[in-house]
UniProtKB/TrEMBL annotation:
Belongs to the RTRAF family. It holds the Pfam family RLL. InterPro entries: RTRAF. This is RNA transcription, translation and transport factor protein.
Length: 217
């Protein structure tokens, strides 16, 4: 809305930027004037904005950045020691950093989440969801996962997950699990192909005697 945009510019200048003296803000405050665009264009030049008046989004973003810098400069002592709300409580910070420490494996939501994830990733399910997790955490599984393998790096963002958990971190973990599962399937397929080739090598080009009903020498 043009009127709201003009009021917004006036508010920024009056309350935060304050580039003009109060008596010099008349033309900018006269938002209903046909000459307001010219006054605004002059204002943009005066505050050294690198964008044109037609570039509304860029202009607004730049002016907001200028206002924030000026606000901080006027109240540096107030803001310099500020910390995010989540970091004020050390205990909460530690808890947020290690979400698995206080994980309740008996929570029905956790069980449902494990089963849902297994279903989404097309991993073989087990009646006992803890057994399904333990199979992934055995010494053999850990040792296998720890073995370094040469290969090309994978750009996770290029692989479409096919579903959204609502959490970016979990989505990325799901992509990794799906790729690992696909790798295991490919290894299995390779072994199956090797077995087929071995069997074919044994039975290939046999000496057949139809009269004796025998296959072989």
């Amino acid at each position: 809305d043009e009127t709201e945009f003009r009021n917004f510019i006036v508010w920024l200048e009056d309350q935060k930027i304050r580039h003009y003296k109060i008596e010099d803000r008349g033309n900018l405050r006269n938002i209903h004037s046909d000459d307001w665009p010219k006054s605004f264009e002059k204002y943009m030049k005066d505050v050294n904005c690198p964008f044109k008046i037609q570039e509304r989004q860029e202009t607004v973003d730049w002016l907001l950045g200028l206002a924030v810098r000026l606000e901080y400069g006027d109240n540096a002592d107030k803001y310099k020691d500020s910390t995010p709300d989540g970091a004020k409580n050390t205990e909460n910070t530690a808890k947020n950093a290690e979400p698995l420490i206080n994980l309740d494996v008996n929570n029905p939501d956790f069980k449902a989440g494990v089963m849902a994830l297994a279903n989404l990733l097309q991993i073989q399910r087990h009646d006992d969801y803890l057994v399904m997790l333990k199979e992934r955490l055995t010494q053999d599984a850990i040792a296998k996962a720890s073995q370094s393998k040469e290969g090309l790096p994978v750009a996770l963002e290029k692989h479409i997950l096919g579903f959204d958990t609502g959490d970016a971190v979990i989505n990325e973990a799901a992509r990794i699990l799906r790729l690992l599962h696909i790798e295991e399937l490919r290894e299995l397929q390779t072994k199956i192909n090797e077995a087929i080739v071995a069997v074919q090598a044994i039975i290939a080009d046999p000496k057949t005697d139809h009269r004796l009903g025998k296959v072989g020498r």
